[in-house]
Amino acid sequence: MKRSISAVLGIAVAASMVLSGCGGDGDSAEGGGLKLTLAGWSLATTPEFKTLADGFHTANPDVTVELKEYDASNYDTQMIADLSAGKAPDVFVQKNLKNFYTYQNGKQLLDVSDVAGQLGDKAGGMANYQVDGKTYAVPYRNDGWVLYYNKGLFDKAKVAYPDGSWTWDDYAAAAKKLSTGLKSAGSQALGTYQHNWQSTIQGFAAAQTPGANWETGDFSYLKPYYVRALDLQKAKAQVDFGTETTNKLTYQAQFGKQSAAMMVMGTWFIATLRAQQEKGDADKFEWGIAPAPQFDKSTTGTAKTPVTFGDPTGLGINAGIDKKKVDAAKKFLAYAAGPQGSKALAGIGITPADTKSVTADFFTLSGVPNDDVTKFAFGTRETKPENPVSKHTAGLLNVLNDLHTAVMSGTKDVDTAIAEAQTRAKNEVLNK
Asked: On the CB side of 184, how many CA atoms lie within 13 Å of its CA?
C-alpha cells in the first residue's frame, strides 16, 4: 500500500524518537521472531529506510527490521568505527561508491552474489559492487543527475523550455538569456544555480568527455567545464562560489524558493521538492526535468540516450553478522532491490535501482510533472558512476576537491590548478 510523504515522514519521526531509547544487541524481536538491524541517517526527514523496513516486515512477519541512526555527514566515519568495535548493524548502506573499496577490501562485507543473481540486470548499478567476479552489495536506488527547470520563470523570461537537445553551450546561453529576461521582467531570479559540490562540474566532465580517465592523473578534460562555469559567474547568470559558500546557500531553497530558473541536480531531489511544496517549505510553481546538458550533439535528442552520472546507493551485509540471521538479511536485500521494494520507494518519490518497473507508478504521484520530456529524462539515461571503485578513489577525490575550490573561488586560474592537482595526484596518490 502506498503512503503519502507526510504519512511516511510522520512514521519516521516517531521511529527516530523510539530508536533513541532502544537497544540493538538482541537477535529476537519483541513478541518473538528474528530481528535484523539496518543503518540509516536523518530518519526524521529520510523516509526510505522506514519504508523498506515496514514493507519487508509486512511481507515477512517473522522478521523485524530495527533502524540504527547515523549522522548523515559522518556516516562512513561512524560506520567504520562501529565495524571495528563490532557494533555495526547487520545490514548497512553503501551511501556512495567513494568508500566501497574500503569496506570490501577490509573484508567487512559478506558475499551476496546469490542475491545479485536473483535480481539479474534489472537493478541498475549492480556492476559497481562486483570485485573479482563476486558481488558484495546490491543497489536499491540509482539516482542520476538531470536538469530541473521552473516553467513560470522560463515563461516570464520568454525562453523556450529544455527539450532534451541541449549541450552545455546551449545551457550556458539559456542561463544568460534567462537572467537578462528575468531582470527585464522585474524578477531577481538568476538563470541557473550550480551548487558548490565538486561533482556539479567534475561528475559531468568525467562521465561525458570521451577518453576521460581520472586514474591516469590527467585532469585536462576538466578545463572547458570550469571555463564555462566561471563565465556564468562573471555574467551574473548564477551565484558566485564565494557568496554560495559564505552564505551557506542550499540547493533546495535556491530552486524551491525560485531564486534560480534551472539547476542540475540528482533525481533524489524530485521527492524532496514535491514534499517541500506540499508542506509549504518550497513555493508552489510548475516545474519539470530534462536530460542533463551533454558534451556534444551525439547524445542529445529523444532518439538517443543522454549520458549523466550518479552513484547507486547500495545495501551490504556486515561480514560479522550472526550466521543464523544471514538468510533473513539476504532476503531483505532481495526485497529492497527487487520489484516490491522498488514500488515502495517509488511510492514516496524515491528513484529505485529498478527504475523501469516503477515508471508508471512514479508518474501517478501528486506534484510530479507528466510531460514527455520529464518522463524521458527520468527513464532514459546512461548513468556512469560518480566515484569509480578503486583503491585510489578517496585520495583522488581529495585532490580534485582542492582543485575545485581553488578554481571556483578564484584563488588559482584553471590551468595552474589543474597542473598542481596532476602533480599531487601522481606524488600523493597514484605512485604510493
From this structure: 12
**Pair 167, 305 in one domain:** yes
Quick check: 293 and 149 in contact, CB under 8 A?
no
In this structure, what C-alpha cell is assigned to residue 319? 561480514
Residues 6+ apart with CB under 8 A from 351: 141, 142, 143, 144, 267, 268, 270, 345, 362, 378
Start-to-end CA span in the chain (Å): 53
Nearest alpha-carbon partner for 166 in 157, 155, 178 = 178
Residues 164 and 227 in one domain: yes
Give tens-digit pLDDT for 161-188. Answer: 999 999 999 999 999 999 999 999 999 9
Name the least confident of 8-17, 297-306, 419-428.
8-17
Q: Report the C-alpha gap between 389 and 311 in whole angstroms.
A: 10
> Cell 551490504 maps to which residue?
316
CATH code (residue 130): 3.40.190.10
Q: What pTM does this model have?
A: 0.81
